[in-house]
Amino acid sequence: MQYTVVRMMYYTVFATFLLLGAASAQTSLQLSSCLTKEQNLEMVCKFTPASDPKLQKICYYMTENKLVGSTNTSSPPDSTFKNRATVSIADNICKLYLKGLSDDKPKNYTCFIKQTTTPVPITAVVDKSKLQTCSGWCVMQHSGAALLLTFLTLPLLSELL
Ligand SMILES: *[C@@H]1O[C@H](CO)[C@@H](O)[C@H](O)[C@H]1NC(C)=O
Ligand SMILES: *[C@@H]1O[C@H](CO)[C@@H](O)[C@H](O)[C@H]1NC(C)=O
């Protein structure tokens, strides 16, 4: 019995690493959005880092042809978004945090990642009434649960049989 539990823990850890690996290997841009518990908008734009780590990465968000925010400090945001938006970039994600998201009609938000000369865009519709509450774990559970179950069940079954 004890042995099975240890095995289970081992497989859980193993499957988690596999999932993390699979997630970070994605190549195209991905844009997701959610509503924080303070009712602010959080958008996460995932990208594949250029192979040259020394290349300067710039990320910015636009909506209705207005600059919401940019990691380029020389590009001031549109006056509508002044002091409301924060854009930050890390290894392979660019985050937008926007305060005072209005309830009115849905709007398209576009994330641009500029690693070489041409920025690469990805657009998503943001509708405040349809946004999910932010929670890092939910995303992981939705995409990973089935896979995780498979990984856990197979070795366990073979052990029981
Ligand atoms: C940052 O913004 C300034 C002003 O818009 C622009 O001239 C400059 O090329 C930008 N820098 C990069 C790395 O894109
Ligand atoms: C967002 O962009 C798509 C594609 O360009 C367009 O069909 C749609 O009407 C836009 N939605 C809003 C709310 O502007």
UniProtKB/TrEMBL annotation:
Cross-referenced InterPro entries: Ig-like_fold, THY1
Keywords for this protein: Cell membrane, Disulfide bond, Glycoprotein, Immunoglobulin domain, Lipoprotein, Membrane, Signal
Leader peptide range in chain numbering: 1-25
Domain of life of the source: Eukaryota
Keyword Membrane in annotation: yes
One GO term (biological process): cell adhesion
GO cellular component terms, semicolon-separated: dendrite; external side of plasma membrane; focal adhesion; membrane raft; myelin sheath
Any one Gene Ontology molecular-function term assigned to this protein's record: integrin binding
Compartment list: Cell membrane
Keyword Nucleus: no
The protein's name in its UniProt record: Thy-1 cell surface antigen
Organism from which the protein derives: Sinocyclocheilus grahami
Lineage: Eukaryota, Metazoa, Chordata, Craniata, Vertebrata
